[in-house]
Each structure stands twice: as C-alpha cells, then as structure tokens.
Specification:
By secondary structure, this protein is of the alpha/beta class. It has helices at residues 23-35, 46-54, 74-84, 100-103, 118-138, and strands spanning 15-19, 39-43, 61-65, 89-94, 112-113. It is globular.
C-alpha cells in the first residue's frame, strides 16, 4: 500500500504537514494541531514536502502557505499533490488579498485568509477527513 493510500481510521490520528515560512506562525499552528490530537510534521518550502512524501512518510493533510519559496509555490504544490498523491488533502492559506481568485479548483473553500484562527484550520481538516473516510468506505461505485 502506498503511503498516500493509507487511510485514517478512528484509532489513528490524522497526520498534518504544516508548510509555512514564518517560524512563529508555523509553531503556533503546529502546537495547536498537536494539542488537538493530530500528528504534525513541519516544513518551510514545497521542496520539504517532496522530501517528506518521497521518504514514504504518511501524510493525510498538507496545510501550506501559498507564497512558498523553492521549486514551486503553494498552488504548484497543490497541483503536484493532486496529481501524484490524490488521497492527500491540501489546505492553502495566504495573507495576500485576492489569492482566492488564483486558486481555481484547488481549494473548495478557497485559501484560508490570514490572519486565521487555528480553530478554522481544525474545522477544515475535520471536514476533509470526514469526506475522505466516507469515500474510503463507499468503494468505487459509491455504495457502502
């Protein structure tokens, strides 16, 4: 089973990869997610994500800044993840106005605008994991 094919169940906490250049923002959200029971990995660039996934680390959700340095920005990362690891959900965040217009179909709710409350991040993760769990149980034809 490929790492991105491993689904979470009721006894396994979701693993969230937080990708944020600002160390204080990254620490605050990572600590909050840990306090909420998530396993958290941290990165600074899109290239860090490629390394983590290339090493076979289990990741359920990537929470990433749109303005990333490295080989690609957050939009490029979301497209790459969607193409190469379709079972991993991506939530983007940005402090720049009008970023949602550039997101297209990469985010159902659009990028989460900064400043955000950590509870909103948890809400979005919970929604994504709920639908991922339902899809895993329903099988290829949608029947449970």
């Amino acid at each position: 089973m490929a790492p991105d094919d491993q689904g979470s169940d009721a006894t396994t906490p979701s693993t969230v990869l937080v990708v944020e250049l600002d160390i204080l923002v990254r620490m605050v959200i990572a600590d909050y997610l840990r306090d909420c029971g998530y396993k958290v990995l941290e990165g600074v660039t899109a290239d860090d994500v490629l390394v983590v996934l290339g090493a076979g680390q289990r990741v359920d959700v990537i929470f990433a800044e749109v303005q990333l340095s490295g080989s690609m920005d957050g939009f490029g990362l979301a497209r790459w993840v969607r193409q190469n690891h379709p079972r991993i959900d991506v939530i983007l965040t940005s402090g720049i106005a009008k970023t949602a217009e550039k997101a297209g179909d990469l985010c159902d709710d659009g990028p989460l605008e900064k400043p955000y409350h950590p509870q909103e991040v948890v809400r979005r993760i919970n929604i994504l994991r709920f639908f991922a769990a339902r899809a895993a149980k329903s099988g290829p034809c949608g029947a449970v």
